[in-house]
Write a structure and sequence with these properties.
By secondary structure, this protein is α+β, with helices and mostly antiparallel strands. The chain folds into three domains: about 70 residues, Winged helix-like DNA-binding domain superfamily/Winged helix DNA-binding domain (Arc Repressor Mutant, subunit A); about 90 residues, Phosphorylase Kinase, domain 1, CATH 3.30.200; about 100 residues, Orthogonal Bundle (Transferase(Phosphotransferase), domain 1), CATH 1.10.510.10. It has ten helices and eleven strands. The strands form three sheets. The protein has a five-stranded antiparallel beta sheet with strand order 4-5-6-8-7, sandwiched between helices. It has a three-stranded antiparallel beta sheet with strand order 1-3-2. It has a three-stranded antiparallel beta sheet with strand order 9-10-11, covered by helices on one side. Strand 10 and strand 11 form a beta hairpin. Helix 9 crosses helix 10. The longest helix has 20 residues. The termini are far apart. Bound molecules: adenosine-5'-triphosphate and magnesium ion. The site of adenosine-5'-triphosphate (ATP) has 17 residues, from strand 5 and strand 6.
Length: about 290
């Protein structure tokens, strides 16, 4: 069920207090014990039960009674906290339609300073298994449910957008809170949905931008025809949470994978064969191994 503006607008201050407390306490618990929650929110038992019940009804909190009565924040509650904060910071003033659902994200239009895009990172249970391999997503100690992995993913992407904005064409990063990024709207469509007039020029443009990113210390790591957008003239590279640095032990493999994926797309859709080894040499030239 997509998030609606009313989900956020109708939140009572006590409900926000409960969501905040759950978020805090979920660093230590998968299920926050009922008694701990009651102590943390400084509300009467009746008020707490009523407000938690209302959050459960709206799909923001879940409860379980085995092995003990406890509550957990779920994605919709985490969404509410992030969007509430972004609205308080005046980064967004209204939530629009959902414009995309990715493997690990939901994308919405919103009103902010003009029309902006919200990317809600949702590192789900299944994909979390693979994310686990990348230790950068994991905290040093303790418990890391998927909501925190999603925040980590959003932070990583926001960091890349901030570093690369102005150097190559990426969405302009506006703000980030928890697992949500606010960024500019790209006025194009993904390469897999566009019909290019000059595929060779676009391939060159991609290589040029991949090189600029590489020289700035970023290898995309998930480059594909789905993560490159084009408006007939300008090309943007989106979806950066999986970046690695050129110094990373897997850097060469990641860069090769990126360029092979895109060249395979050009071979299949446009029957153009590009030399990936040559492309790698071009991207890495001038950089000491
Ligand atoms: N800034 C933006 N402006 C316009 N559209 C966007 C923007 N960011 C994302 N989108 C749209 O949403 C889709 C999904 O975004 P993104 O690739 O960042 O997420 P994802 O979870 O990795 O998705 P996927 O699994 O499909 O790769 C994009 O393919 C694009 O159509
Ligand atoms: Mg994508």
């Amino acid at each position: 069920m997509p998030l609606s503006a009313d989900d956020i607008k109708n939140l009572h201050p006590y409900e926000i207090r409960i969501l905040h407390a759950l978020e805090r306490m979920m660093r230590r618990h998968s299920w926050v014990p009922e008694d701990d929650l009651k102590m943390a929110v400084h509300l009467s038992a009746v008020e707490t039960n009523y407000r938690v019940g209302s959050l459960i009804q709206r799909g923001m909190v879940r409860s379980d009674s085995v092995p003990y009565k406890g509550y957990a924040l779920v994605f919709k509650g985490y969404d509410a906290l992030a969007l509430f904060s972004l609205a308080q910071q005046k980064s967004i003033s209204a939530l629009g339609f959902m414009i995309g659902v990715g493997k690990e994200s939901e994308i919405y239009e919103a009103r902010g300073c003009g029309i902006v895009v919200l990317k809600l990172h949702k590192v789900g249970q299944r994909s979390f298994q693979t994310v686990r391999i990348n230790r950068e997503y994991m905290p040093e100690h303790g418990h890391c449910p998927w909501i925190f992995a999603s925040a980590k993913s959003a932070k990583r992407e926001y960091e890349a957008l901030k570093a690369l904005n102005g150097k190559l064409n990426v969405p302009v990063p506006i703000n980030q809170n928890r697992h949500v990024i606010v960024m500019s709207l790209i006025p194009g469509v993904s390469l897999h949905r566009s019909r290019l007039e000059d595929p060779g020029a676009v391939w060159q443009d991609i290589l040029a931008q991949v090189k600029v990113a590489y020289d700035a210390g970023y290898i995309h790591g998930d480059l594909s025809e789905y993560n490159i957008m084009h408006d007939g003239a300008v090309l943007w590279i989106i979806d950066w949470p999986q970046w690695t640095t050129p110094e990373h032990p897997n850097a060469t493999a990641a860069l090769r994978h990126d360029l092979e994926t895109v060249s395979a797309f050009f071979a299949k859709k446009y029957q153009r064969i590009y030399d990936v080894d040559e492309a790698i040499r071009f991207v890495t030239s001038g950089k000491v191994d």
